[in-house]
Amino acid sequence: MSLIDQARAPLEALARANQAFARRFPGEQPARQPVHTFYGGAQLYRAETTNRLGELGLATLERYAGDGASFARAVGFSEDEALAEQVYARVQHKLAHEPVEDFRIDFEDGFGARPDDEEDATARRAARELARALSEGLAPPFVGIRIKPLNDEWKLRAARTLELFLETLLEESGGRLPPRFVVTLPKITLPEQASTLVRLFELLEARFGLASGALELELMIEVAQALMGRDGRSPLPGFLDACEGRCVGAHFGTYDYTASCNITAAYQQMDHPMCDLAKGMMQLAYAGTGIFLSDGGTNVLPVEIERAGTLSESEQRKNRESVHAAWRLAHKHIRHSLAGGFYQGWDLHPAQLPVRFATCYAFFLESFDKGAERLKNFIAKAAQATLVGDVFDDAATGQGLLNYFLRALNSGAIDASALAQTGLTKEEVELRSFAKILAARTARAQP
After folding, report:
1. In 305-352, which residue ranges form alpha helices assigned H by DSSP?
2. Under CATH, domain 36-365 is a member of which superfamily?
3. Which stretch of 138-142, 158-162, 220-224, 403-407 has the lowest confidence by average pLDDT?
4. CA dihedral 425, 431, 436, 439 (to 10 degrees)
C-alpha cells in the first residue's frame, strides 16, 4: 500500500482545510474600488450634492491654480511640466464629470446627537433625495449611509434610522437599491455589533422583499480596542467573520483612533506612527480577503481665511497661502497612504477633491513609462523561461508590477488603451493574475 493510500484520511482533512482557506482568502476582487469616500452630514444631503461638490472643487482649483504648472507647485507633486499639465487636464475632466466616486450620507459625526423626531425626519428626507438622485441620474457610482454605533447608547437609534431610511428609499425608488449601496458601521468594538447588524439586514430584506444578501456593510476601525483585545489578540478577523460574508470594506478612522491612544490633537495626523501601526494590522488581518481598505482623511481643510467683500492683495495672498498649505498637507497624507498600500481615503470638503485626484493620478503616471517597459520585458522573459523548462520563481515581483497597472486603471490615471504599452491584451489584464497570464502565454506558445 502506498503512502498516499495509507494517509488518505489526513490528506482529505488537509484538502478540506485548504478549501476553507481558499474561501476565506479569495484574493483581491476584480470590482472597481473608489479612490475616496466623501462624508457629508445627512441634514445637508440633496440629490444635486455630489455635482455641486464638483462645481465647488473645480472653482477652487481654477481660482488658486490656473494651470498645471501652478497647481503642481502649489501641491508639490511634480516638476515635470508635461506630467503636470496631463494631471491638471484629468482633474478638470474628473471634477466636471464624476467629482465624487463614493458618497456617504452621514448620521454619525457629521450629523451629531439630535432629537429623535429630527433624525427621523432627516432619514426620510435624505432617502427621498437619494431616490431622486437615482431617478435623475445624479447619484455617484457608490453611495451609502453611516449609522450611529451599535453600542448601548446608540444601538436603538441606529436601527431606527436604518429602518426609516431604507423604507423610504425603497418606497420612492420602486423597491430598487442603488448599485453598490453600503451601510457603514462606525466605532466597532465587538463582533456582536457586526453580527447584530447582519440580523437587522435579514429582517429588513425579508420585510421589503430584497434578495438575501442585498444589504452590505463596511466596518470602521476607530478605537484601540478594535485592534487589540483583552486576550492580547487582534479582534479584526473576528469582526470579518461576524459579518457573514456581507462586509465589503474596512475604513480607518484617524482621529477617533489617535484620541483613543491618548495622542494630543496637535499630533493627530494620518501619517502618525500609531496610525501606520493600525493600518498595518488591518492589512495583515484583511489581505487576500477581497474587502477594500480605506484610510481616513486630512482634517485641515483648504478654506479661505478672508471671504467678505472686495479683498485686498494682502487678503488674497492669505487665502491663496491657506488653500495651498492645506493642499500640500493633503497631498502628503494621500501620497503616504498610497505608498502604504491604501488606495482609498476620505474627503471632507469640496476643495480637497482636486488634490485627491491629482495625487492619485501623479502617483501612477510619474513612473508609468518605465513600469510599462519593465512589465513587458518581465513577462516576455518569464514566458520564455517556462517554455524551455526553466524554473521561474519570481512571480511575486511580476504580480507586484501587474498590481501597479491594475491600480492605475482603477484610479482613472490611465485608461485601458494605455495598457497596450505594457504588451498586455485586454483579456490578459482581465485575468488580474501574473501566474495566469504567464500560463496562458505558455499554452499559446506550445506546438
Report:
1. 313-339
2. Malate synthase, domain 3 (3.20.20.360)
3. 403-407
4. -30
Q: CA separation (Å) from 347 to 57, 135, 408? A: 11, 26, 20
Write the DSSP assignment of 117-173 as a string of letters: HHHHHHHHHHHHHHHHHHHTT---SEEEEE----STTTHHHHHHHHHHHHHHHHHHH
Can you read off the three cell numbers belonging to residue 159?
Answer: 436601527
Higher pLDDT, 383 or 117: 117
What is the sign, positive or negative, of the torsion defined by CA atoms of 247, 413, 402, 421? positive
Q: How far is CA 133 from each of CA 11, 34, 130, 141, rounded to the nearest angstrom?
A: 55, 19, 5, 11
CATH 3.20.20.360 spans which residues of the chain? 36-365
C-alpha cell at 359: 495625487
Query: Where are the alpha helices (H) located in 209-312, listed in sequence order?
Result: 236-242, 254-260, 273-286
pTM of the model: 0.92
Cβ neighbourhood burial of 352 (10 Å; 0-12, 13-18, 19+): buried
